[in-house]
Amino acid sequence: MLTPETILKSTFGYDTFKPLQREIIANVQARRDTLVIMPTGGGKSLTYQVPALLFDGLTVVVSPLIALMKDQVEQLRALGVSAVFLNSSLSPEEYQENMDAVKSGRAKLLYVAPETLLTPRIYSLLSSLKLDLLAIDEAHCISEWGHDFRPEYRQLVDVRRKFPSAVCMALTATATPRVREDIKTSLGFTQSNEFLASFNRENLFIEVTPKRDPVAQTLKFLENFKDQSGIIYCFSRKQVDELATTLARYKYSVRPYHAGLEDSERKRNQEAFIRDDAQIIVATIAFGMGINKPNVRFVIHFDLPKSVESYYQEIGRAGRDGLPAHCLLLYSYGDASKIRYFIDQKEEPERSASYQHLDAMTRYAEGSACRRKPLLSYFGETYSQESCGTCDNCGMEESDLTDITVPAQKFLSCVKRSGERFGAAHIVDILLGSENEKIQKYSHHQLSTYGIGKELTKSQWMHVARQLVEKGLLDQEPAYRVLSVTAKGLEMLKSREQIKGQINEAQKKERGARVKSMSSEESEYDKSLFSLLRNKRKELADAAGVPPYVIFSDKTLVQMAAYFPQDKEALLNMSGMGKVKYERYGADFLTIIKSYCRENRIEEKYKAPMRDKDDAGRRYVLVGEAYNAGQGIESLMARYGVSADTILTHLARFIQAGNPLRTAEDLMSLSKLTPDQQQKVFQAFDELGPDMLKPVYEKLNSTVNYDELKILRLCYLCEKR
Ligand code: ADP
Ligand code: ZN
Questions:
Q1: Does 511 reside within a domain?
Q2: 40 Cα nearest atom in ligand 1
Q3: pLDDT, tens only, 475-525
Q4: Which of 396, 415, 445 is the last residue of a domain?
């Protein structure tokens, strides 16, 4: 029998669903319109591809870019799934062939651009068929508030009206509430069928480092990424060309990409990167849209990005395959000034908006707390762990921090005494007792804080200043970077409370990307075998005229090089090894692995089938069902040996997967609030929606804690069903 689980394993070769995939599929199977919001690499495609294979009829996938369609169709065909696309890149014969495949029912999935879908020819084709699912990829294109509005998307609602029996999915990686609302109203979705995945990308190691000698820093970084694909983003075309030339001189296989190049050259360079013919692409932000390459192992920002949003989007192109990837930002104050100079040329209101974006970006870069906190909070998510272990700031030992109370006091009082009208550089000049013109002009040599900070250097003082801003003791006005002391700062001046921080920048220890996303066996995979397997993959890909990742992902090869499978059964146990891929390529790879093992006297390592281990992944269903069968929260806690919080999380997932819960009474009894307070919380959910707790928490002026909010959210969802 076909189930989502059997299709996942036999067609896609995966053992377990990624977060929310299973719930989304269930929702679509129940023919409820579904909005899916997941970050890049979250696994959106699978959520409509699995239902497509479960439904009898046709699935139409709307996609804005020819390159994306082609890529998806190639990947599906390699899995043995019959998929076609219709667009202007096809010859008349190919077009007809694909039309026939759809008409005859041979094709399960049809990829089209929105404008194609709206033509009479396609309308009449579809009218002669059973259309089961309409999936709208890159659905933010429907919204004028998104970064990529496409008017044709607006007309998709007509398609829906024409084919009312087809269930509709909208998928996007854009999380802003405004865009989400827009998508839902444009397509007529109801509130509850929305699936919002976490935007935390655990496999990305995130690092920001002061930019000193950027070329040398880049070369040093690249030493750890021999033969591995990566993107280097630069601010200007000129910088792209220069850096690409330099890296080529150091014998790196590298191509430039920017809007100043001929179309044909740009295309060639992109293709070379995608097909692993070039290792590195040096690019402006023009590069990336429509790139599906899953094995990008690093992204370097050679220059400062203009906003946190674009930064997140750019680093998001790394590690789509779920394997570890490293994101490095080279940060300098000078870069920020450069961008500020460009912003100055703009008109209002664009100028103010750009300042705000830049300001958020510099605050992020200068931050000393876990990088994931500001990134995720930017998308309205709270990162509740104290430390992620996979960013440069985490794992910073408490002992790396020193007492900076005295310098902090000096700095704050100097800001205060000079009238809160200057930037950090001038304050430092006062502290160091500089005799420059500006000091003279404002008579700052007469201040009591003049020259009291000679124990530190200028760069040490600047670093202290950044930390004070970050700790909220100083406020920095965005346009001219003028500093003022906050209420919290005044408090600190009075109370003389101890402050911990760093005197020197770059006390950060070298830390490699710690690999959360790999098991210990996998992180010790055999590099030489991997390289042999990769060569084979490249050879097969070139022969088939597709990118290497269409044959196998890096993850599949890593597992082969870690477990050394010797026969069919063991090979089928590798992630991404579906039946069809095994039949097509299995023998080739087995031959290589076996001969390598013979020569090097290596034995196969046993890989436990994931499904056995993964009872935990589906535990929410067991918990939900047990609850519905009458078990109370306490008895579930005892049965699974977990906290109430965990049980509540399971139940929330269970509801969000579209299952009803028997009653909210048991849950309500967990809440310690008065009925009056509870009512206030429910009102806040009505107003702000139940997805994110932080806005609700803030709306209630932090009077209700998160534990309570979690309980009441569950009651709320329960009632709504
Ligand atoms: P998105 O469209 O959200 O950016 P994709 O659909 O391209 O993400 O999926 C990202 C990668 O994750 C792809 O290489 C895909 O094959 C892989 N993937 C998707 N679902 C799973 C799963 N359940 N297990 C393992 N890998 C998966
Ligand atoms: Zn962190």
A1: no
A2: 4
A3: 988 777 899 999 999 988 888 888 888 777 654 444 443 444 566 667 788
A4: 396
